[in-house]
Amino acid sequence: SRYLPIYQSGLSQTWGVEYASKHICAFEGSTVEISCTYTYPPWISYKKTVVQREFWYAKLKDKNPLDLREDPDYAGRVTYRCSEQSCSLRISGLRLNDFAEYRFKFETNQPDGSFTGKPGVSLTVTGKHSLPFPVIVPTPSAEVLEGSSVTLTCSSDANPAAKYTWFKDNRPLLSEDKVHFSSIRSEHSGNYSCKSENKHGQSSSTPLLLDVQYPPRIPSVSVFGKILKGSSVTLTCSSDANPAANFSWYKKDEDSPKASGTNWTISDFRAEHSGFYYCEAENRRGSLNSKLKSRWGRCEFVDLLVLQLNTSPDINSPSAETEAAEEQLELHYSSTHLSENQEECLYSNIRRNPKPRQRPEDNSVE
């Protein structure tokens, strides 16, 4: 700055620029206003000082000051509002590269009669989506047991306070800061995210996988293959469960499992294979120990598959031609269910015969 004396009392004797704010932060796409006041000696050596030019520029290295109204980077986005000894700069449609130090300069009719206010005003421009990312907090956790109470809370550090929108699997869910399930069900599983928004912008959270777990549903059993002596028979067990169930195959009245896994294949079916079979499904949500036991007992989740070997009682009978001394197997299905107040399993059998035929007696085991 420069000092020039004047000879009238009550008037400023110095050159100066004073900014309303030294640091401004704004969001991309918004409008910002930077203002200042300035002073100068009204007379110098009996010559009245007249302001001939006033303008704003962005301080850039290795470049001379360029009036922002003439800068192509600011074309159509800059306006000045100046009056006696004050001037403001308005920049609309802020861009990320508008980040700079902005200075005000005025020029007068006096010899060396120009002045620049420095340092200027530092402008920081941040992205329009640069609100702090919201965070989802699950209570008690994101891995929950079906039927329990769960609350998802979305929070974000924002000023003014943010408004929230919830999404499930990218579909809008509700506009609240919390999602509450008083008794959560399996269909509530999915990816949940929230969006925070205020007048300065918006931001979205990282998706949270809500995993609703439950014990195995009642298993179902099916059989594949011709049920003939020496043939290959495959038993398949399935059950809806989360996490996925593990399966064990048992023969009635035997403690040790015959096999494990979804499928069990008897490759060479013989008479001694006849009997009642069931599969047992278990996961960590449905058992209290290594075997699946509900509070009602093991039978709660059991389907029984009945394989009964039938042989022709008389190879000289009229039916011998059709049976051809071939040991045929009849397939029966039995399901069990144990209610809360029962101590024994209830069995219900459904016989499935390939076709009706005459025979002296029924050898199937019920």
TrEMBL record:
Disordered: annotated segments: 334-366
Ranges where the Ig-like domain occurs: 134-211, 219-289
Listed Pfam families: Ig_2
Coiled coil: none
Top-level taxon in the UniProt lineage: Eukaryota
Record PROSITE patterns: IG_LIKE (PS50835)
Residues of the signal peptide: none
Protein name per UniProt: Ig-like domain-containing protein
Source taxonomy: Eukaryota, Metazoa, Chordata, Craniata, Vertebrata
